[in-house]
Amino acid sequence: MSRAPWVVAAFATLGVAGAGGFVSAWPNLWPAQTSGIITPAAAEVGRTVIYYQDPDGRPFYSLTPKKTADGREFRPVRAGQDLSFEPAADVPATEPAPAARAASRRVLYYRNPMGLPDTSPVPKKDSMGMDYIAVHEGDDDGDGGAIRLTPGRIQRTGVKTEPAALRVIRTVIRAPGTIQLDERRIAVISLRTEGWVQKVEDVTTGSRVRKGQPLMEIYSPAISAAAADYAAQMPMPGEVRSDIRATPGPGRGSRQRLMNLDVPEAVITTIERTRVAPLTIAWAAPRDGIVLERNAIEGTRVQPGDVLFRLADISLVWTLIDVAERDLGSLRTGLPVTVRARGHPGRAFDGRIAVIYPQINRETRTVRLRIELPNADAALLPEMYVDAEVDIGSQQPVPAIPESAVIDSGSRQVVFVDRGDGRFEPREVKLGARGGGYVEIRGGVAVDEPVVIAATFLIDAESNLRAALRGFTEAGARP
Question: Fewer CB within 10 Å: C terminus or N terminus of the chain?
Answer without folding.
Answer: C
